[in-house]
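Fig. S4 source data, part A: sequence.
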Amino acid sequence: MSLPVTNLDDRKFQDLVDEAKRMIPQLCPEWTNHNLSDPGVALIELFAWMTEMTLFRLNQVPDTFYTRMLNLLGFEQFPASAARTELTFWLSGATSAGIEVPQGTEVTTLGTVGEPRVFTTMETVAAVQPVLVSALTSDGPDRYTNVWGSLSLGLENVTCFPRTPLTPGDAFYLGFEQSLKGNAIRLGIEATVEGIGVNPDRPPLVWEVWQGEGWVRASVPDLPGEGEVADSTGGLNRNGHVLLLIRSDHQPLTLGGVRAHWLRARLIEPAPGQAAYRASPQIRRVTAAAIGMTVEAEHSERIDDEFLGTSTGKPNQVFEVSRRPVLPRDGHEVLEVSTPLATTEWVEVNDFVDSGPNDLHYMWDSSTGKITFGPVIRYPDGSVRHHGTIPPEGARLRLTSYRTGGGALGNVGVGTLTGMRSAIPYVSGVSNLVPATGGVDAETVENAKRRGPQSVRAGGRAVTVSDFERLAGEADSRVARVRCLAPEQPGDPVRLFVVPHVKQRAEMLVLDDFALPDDMIARIAGYLDERRVLGSTIEIGTPYYQGVTVASLLTAQPGRPASLVRDRAQRALYDYINPITGGSDRHGWAFDTDLNSANIFQVLEAVEGVEKVDEVLFFEYDLRNHERMGFGKELVKLAPDSLFLSTNHHVVVQ
């Protein structure tokens, strides 16, 4: 079997001849005879043959040579990026405030194949004991009734949703004295069985928190421990507790004349097949206690005080750190070069182009972990220049600290991060209630070979729409797709719509999965700010995700189980109408591409076990309020700044 051949330039003999002939009218208009007998055409064919031989030999170069040539042009492969998740540290009991989980706390997986994955907390989080100061009920926008007196004394029941009949949007508000950001809160509920009609395991209400710009969902996960549930009140219908995770920021707001930090239980429109309340729940008393702290963590491990080696005093020295890949620097990484006379701190640079003989500079490759010192270059005029100082012979090199980790291995599932490397007083355990996402392996050579020529051709400048899209993808490896819209009027910003990588099953995707982390936005903005045209402004955000539900009627082939065919059809719909892996090419649903029933007919007809597709209808879906909108249709239009996100597909198999 022959070795694979690299196609750096896939033009063949005839392609080169045709390209040269197309240039004749522009460069030599007086040349009109293009027949094969013409001497000029013979010369074109001769040089095309020689060029084809050159391209053939160029295609034999190994990948290492190709990437080294790109490195000389200032092009580098993307390093690995670290997965992130939220860790919840559970307290051993409801305690007073002041318990902290410090930044840099390490948590590992237990029982996984291979080496444990280590995650490190990104900031310090402290337990805040919640103090209830107010309670309101609302029967419409800007209409509030203060029920704090009744609730605090516990002398009479409080009707949570006052309107009759019950109307989606009515809410029950609880106000707290302090921000509860990062805390897991257990609400103790004393209730009476009045909210009849609902399924206790699936009530049509959501808990939300005010985070400064809007209401976001306060997650209600299952509690750690055997037999425990997150909501034991059956939809505020019986005595029990509700666990809320306040992940996002928690800002104060004035409602009904009271300024506090608010949580609310909001009545929503029941989903198809979901029972609704026939009467409002009634509550006699509410208590609140902090039982945990939630903090963001990344797949990384900090290595402190590593000895690299001893300098030989020669240029172009290379040293390697013991662990790799190396994650982006956070300011704690210091390279110290020690001699008997002094210890100096050196500075990392991207290249040695501007480094002088007295500059204490070095380069650090994140993927390989190699630290390189400056070369000595002999110029055409015979002069010799040191690009960066060379560590003296015998000098000892030491790194004070660096972070290692990253890659797709860090995308661990729910409940896998449970091992604490160090004990924390009053903390009984830890778990991740959401999966870790965002871990991406270092860029492959094959992808670098495709991206390199584009980067070199554009010179690293953001001028055209395609330049902005390409550079935004370069800024952060967590970016899956980018859409750029040019300004409609002079002075308008360039609008970038970014879709992040989401390692989640298609049918499990929700709107919050596509939120852009603040550090990703900052990284893209900073990267583009250095490369944009002077005077242009950039606006970075997410596309508008248009929710869509497919209702279809299928006929299964004889002998095929209806449940199996239904599962396959739903899976095909979720995979096809998907922002990241959907569309006909499986590279994500294309921008500006409408959804029509003809395409869905083709997708469903290709499902194994389907004999025919009888009917397909689309319903627009409100992803924020979780409700279907309007009537069924056979075509759904898509705006230029939008993408489809499918949910709640309904497939009937007969």
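Fig. S4 source data, part B ends here. The radius of gyration is 31 Å.
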